């Protein structure tokens, strides 16, 4: 009376799929992929996704390691340490903002130098690669001139 139920069988092309097992479904998907004329683009797309996800995970791990001093300062409840780390983030954001919305790499060092020289900020030329709290280093007029240097760098259309 209690005969074991036979799995339903389904025919797809030349493959027989046993339902509803997970392994049999994966095997059917693999078979369909192998016989598909679009196999190569699908495989390349899948590999590309794996690379992108892997690179994103790696970058996140590196970012977390780079941010460790910030997290440590928070754990120690060290307000000055948190402030220093926020300053570092601000400097990085400021450096990226000079070229914003274009990537930093779009401009050559000569273009940065020219924009600074046009506004009399030649003393900053040797400091292009220096990480500092520029809001503390520059006077208010120099900060305004730096904002105009950014405009010269982007050459907005009128």
TrEMBL record:
Entry's transmembrane regions: 42-61, 81-100
Keywords for this protein: Membrane, Plasmid, Transmembrane, Transmembrane helix, Transport
Protein name, as recorded: Uncharacterized protein
